[in-house]
Design goal:
Length: about 350
Amino acid sequence: MTKVYNFMNEMDQEVINFLGSEIKNGKIVIFPTETVYGIGANIFDPFAVDRIFDFKGRANDNPLIVHISDKIMLNDIVFPYSDVERKLIDAFMPGPFTIILNKRDCVNKYVTGGLNTVGVRMPSNIVARKLIKAAGVPIAAPSANLSGKPSGTNIDDVYDEFNGKVDYIIDYGDSDIGLESTVVKVIDGIPVILRPGKITPEDIIEVVGAVKVHDTVLKPADLNEKVESPGVKYKHYAPEAKTLLIYSDYCSYFKEAIKNYIIPNTCIIGPEEWKNDFDCKYYVSYGSENNLSEISKKIYKSIRLADSYKPDFIIIVGVSDKGEGLAIMNRLLRASSYNFVNIDKFRQNKV
Ligand code: AMP
Ligand code: MG
């Protein structure tokens, strides 16, 4: 049985305390964060952590991000870190930011997919922070979605996939950001973005003067090489239907070009401003073309909505990969299994 608590109008500290103790005692709680919903377990309880992998159908070598409520908890689970890492932590925690650090022995490798490092995040969402504090232990929490699917960003999507499996769900409305955290690992003194998010490369440069974006952010991982972020090996964020991503930074006939790809029973996912411009069966708006934050917030819900129409083909209109757009394009490239057309280059990839 799954019990749902609604915290949208009121957050009861007694319930938080209760849920915190339940997590500590091995129960699984889906809770809101500012990025996406997380499915959480006590990191020190191997059986609870195992249930997360089981419920999601997640590969065991795909590490979980560990969520903390304060820096004391951080120092309990990682070894002392460098100056660059400290600056990043001071600047971006709490917030939509995960840093990979060397783990202490108390963090078992079943949490970290066998790695000696652990990804740590301190959410800014008030419910998440209070819950972790009430639990008194760090909470391992991947995104609340079946492996391979878009992350859960609202109660309906989460409930569909996990009702009857997890012990508790906290409903706190739509996630503010809608895309998962920026994951950074400092390598040879330079922050390397393994997964882009709301914290952009520009934000990181402002703090430490340097940043690299890992090759796998906009390209498929080369499985013959060492993979820095195991999550990139797996299919992710994908709709059921065959999907094509089309994008252009400056092409004036972009919209016309898209029309060439429409087949019967196509669903286009694109900007609100374009919703009447195509002769296709379904159109799902992901928000204004001028508002990347809105698109981040709505993109996963849009993909799930498109899927619910059971189209034969989905076309997603891409955005610029600058600023917050980098995170959106990273997810869309993976959602489409790198089946994309860049109209500017007129280069076709694998359609
Ligand atoms: P999710 O839990 O679904 O938000 O995905 C977590 C992401 O963080 C995955 O892409 C992981 O590969 C990445 N990640 C977590 N921990 C580590 C780690 N220790 N080293 C590298 N990447 C990590
Ligand atoms: Mg995920």
